[in-house]
Amino acid sequence: MRPSYNSCFVQGNNSCLPSLTHVVKLRLMSLGARIKEVRESLGWQQEDLAAKVPGLTQPALSALEVRDSKSSQFAFQIAEALGVSARWLMTGAGRKDDVDWPFPRVRRERWDLCNDVDRGYVQAAINKALDECEAQRPAAIDEKHVVAA
Length: 149
Description:
7 helices
């Protein structure tokens, strides 16, 4: 039986609709549930995803999607095929559109707490710093970069 409470008896509630509210316990998604969510959002069948991951069969993918597993030997390849962060796919942490973290001296958790506006500001600052580095770098004599006159 689900726990519930009658909202009509909550002080200050002048409308009794609905009169009975069910309490729902939320559960973190498993690896398989995240795989299924992204696969379905792409409009792919299990066979489509399995074909993109060498060694992964449709029955193995089906079992992975219904299990409450924490890992899979195919997790990194599945993340790449789906175009999502392997970290997000395996743990649910961060954002699914994040790539591997390229800044070892900056704690990843700080980035995870940024909203889109903050992320835009940080990215603009990084681009400016990279522009300054490139401007100070001596011109490299490299046959690949020589422009024909």
